[in-house]
Amino acid sequence: MNATKALDNLFQQDFCKREFKAIGTTAEVVINGSKQIDRAVQILKMQLDELDRAASRFRDDSEVSILKSGNPAVVSPLLFEILEIAQWAYNVSCKKLNPFIGNSLVSLGYDRDFEEIETLSGKYLENNVVKDFDSIVLNRKTRLVKIDPGTVLDLGCIAKAFASDKASKSIADDLKCDVLVSLGGDVSVQNSLGCTRWPIGIADRSGDINGVEEVIEISEGGLATSGTVSRSWGNGEVLNHHIIDPLTGQSVGTPFRTVSVHAKDALNANVAATTALIMGEASIEWLNASELDARLVTEEGKIVKLNRWP
Question: What 8-state DSSP symbol labels residue 12?
């Protein structure tokens, strides 16, 4: 099915879509009921503003940036929840998803919104060690957090998917409607009224409707695509991207250019897709053992579908 045709069919059923730029990516919300779309956008923007103030490493006044001083600080319930989720993701991903890759990303040039670094030259860093997650202090009772001075936390992978799930549920509960929220391709759907089948285009780059290779329909949960194509920079012999191997601190070398996963929510889908990308060939066995529906595309364009991926 053509992606544009699939979406046109959806909008003929009184569905309404809005999109805007936020947290360094494109935010999209689709609901059934055009009269309520302004309220849906308001909820999404409010939650993304709160997220940005808590977890953006590009803002000097964010909570994450303040933690770089190394002084213990009591953080907001939102940031503490995200840090606990990051700890969970670190463990379930066999330590592949490590929020301490922030310093590596900064050293490679990714120290501002991506649109500002696309023309940078690539870099190769030697002895770029990524700290273990155990170096962070998290006190659940007081929400006190402490990290080593100068440490840059990168929570983007976790926070974006978490925000998609949170917003879709909030909008569905508030408006009593079916809703889809996508943040940079981390898709979360809620079907409060029925069983809407949401058409999702799968492409190397989020939002690239002309590059859609396949359209699938989901009626529940979340879908995420992680890849090395959409956020890459450099030229000549060195090409960097934002997926970091914590064992080396370098942009990971992987046989896959994209991995897409459908799971119970966007967070689990994103964690699985990014973990699989870093794992490389071993990810096929790992995804099969997890019984997750997945689509992997090799650098040569070969497509591998696992479990119940359509």
Answer: T
